[in-house]
From TrEMBL:
It comes from the Bacteria. Residues 25-42 have a biased composition (Low complexity). InterPro entries: AB_hydrolase_1, AB_hydrolase_fold. It comes from Halomonas shengliensis. Residues 1-42 are annotated as: Disordered. It holds the Pfam family Abhydrolase_1. This is Pimeloyl-ACP methyl ester carboxylesterase. Residues 44-253 form the AB hydrolase-1 domain.
């Protein structure tokens, strides 16, 4: 894994890159029966993290995905998260759509990404949809994982339950392990934005109509933040499989079943290679 920093007007954007290894040099933990040879000319996969996430919380998944797909995998901490600079003020209610012209635009320019594949988890999936629509000429494929396409009572209730859990002794220290002194901002941005009047009625419907690339919606059957109506909404409004791919897990497939997720994404991309 290679780490680097890209500069923005608000400060540094922390980026990490994983490249697939040549046969014979791979770690056993990143190999599967369907591990593909490195494909240096293939477009990289860019990962977009969830509302409490960062590069570190992808854990082994980027390396697994790089080996399974044969492609470079790139992840970055959005401003305000992980090792990136603090966000300059409160996060606006337009933050999902804004990422296409914000952190992602910085990443694309800084790494000179002509073409790319997007994979977004949870709210990162919504951002991936917005980016795919905004950069339709360059986005080759889109994968959403446990993404929300609209606001459901289940989503809001799950966020409130998580907020209550973070009030328990020691819970915020675990969040600070990944976000440092930005941890309180990270939590409040998540809870307060989703429950704000300005966010009421939010959907991805307009952005979904602008997506032109093959799209795969993946969802856990036991997701505590969104019903199966969420991936079905995404799948029905984008090119690609008309039904979502369901996994026997909850909201975080890249931690609950990372090898399975990596193989599914790799298979989806291999059909289009």
């Amino acid at each position: 894994m290679q780490a680097l920093t890209l500069e923005t007007p608000a400060g540094g954007l922390h980026v990490a890159r994983w490249r697939p290894q040549a046969p014979g040099t791979r770690s056993p933990r990143t190999q599967s029966p369907r591990t593909r040879s490195p494909r240096p000319q293939a477009s990289p996969i860019v990962l977009l993290h969830d509302s409490l996430g960062c590069i570190a919380l992808w854990r082994d998944f980027p390396a697994l995905l790089a080996e399974a797909s044969g492609r470079e995998v790139i992840a970055y901490d959005r401003l305000g998260y992980g090792e990136s600079a603090p966000y300059p003020g409160p996060q606006p209610a337009t933050f999902v759509a804004d990422e296409a012209s914000g952190g992602f635009a910085t990443l694309r320019e800084g790494l000179a990404l002509e073409r790319f594949v997007l994979l977004g988890h949870s709210v990162g999936g919504g951002m991936a949809v917005e980016i795919a629509g905004r950069h339709a000429e360059a986005c080759e494929a889109l994968v959403t994982v446990a993404a929300q396409a609209t606001i459901e009572p289940l989503t809001l209730a799950g966020i409130r339950e998580a907020e209550a859990a973070f009030a328990e002794p020691g819970a915020m220290r675990r969040l600070a392990r990944y976000h440092g002194d930005k941890a309180e901002w990270v939590l409040r941005s998540w809870v307060d934005n989703w429950h704000s009047e300005a966010f009421d009625g939010w959907t991805l419907d307009d952005a979904l109509t602008r997506v032109r690339c093959p799209t795969l919606a993946i969802h856990g059957e036991h997701d505590e933040y969104g019903s199966l109506a969420q991936p079905r909404r995404i799948a029905s409004r984008t090119p690609g499989p008309a039904e979502p791919r369901l996994l026997p897990c909850g909201h975080v497939p890249h931690r609950e079943c990372p090898e399975v997720l990596a193989d599914i994404v790799a298979e989806f991309l291999a059909v289009r290679d």
